[in-house]
Design brief:
Layout (H helix, E strand, L loop, with lengths): L7 E8 L3 H16 L6 E8 L2 E8 L2 H28 L1
Antiparallel strand pairs: 1-3, 2-3
Helix pairs in contact: 1-2
């Protein structure tokens, strides 16, 4: 496996309106973070009170952008599902 030097970095801090949403996002994304599909980017998740901190390091800006887009879409989808479940219960 090639060892790529990470050249592009981003940190995103997302605030959640409920503990349930935050927990659902962390639980759903943890497997993705622990076993990445490609070696072009590394992702770390951290909880800080009502915030999720998403840190992405990538070997180039293309990998950084695509990784950020994927994780942010996943976050949005998970939050939407939790909201639908909360309102239907």
């Amino acid at each position: 496996m090639m060892d790529y030097q990470m050249k592009a970095k981003a940190t995103i801090r997302l605030k959640f309106s409920s503990e349930k949403q935050l927990r659902a996002v962390v639980d759903a994304l943890t497997p993705e973070v622990s076993k990445p599909l490609a070696g072009r980017a590394k992702v770390a998740l951290e909880r800080q009170d009502a915030f999720l901190v998403l840190r992405v390091e990538a070997r180039d800006t293309v990998a950084l952008r695509s990784t950020l887009n994927a994780y942010l879409r996943w976050v949005g989808s998970i939050v939407n599902v939790v909201e639908v479940l909360e309102h239907s219960a």
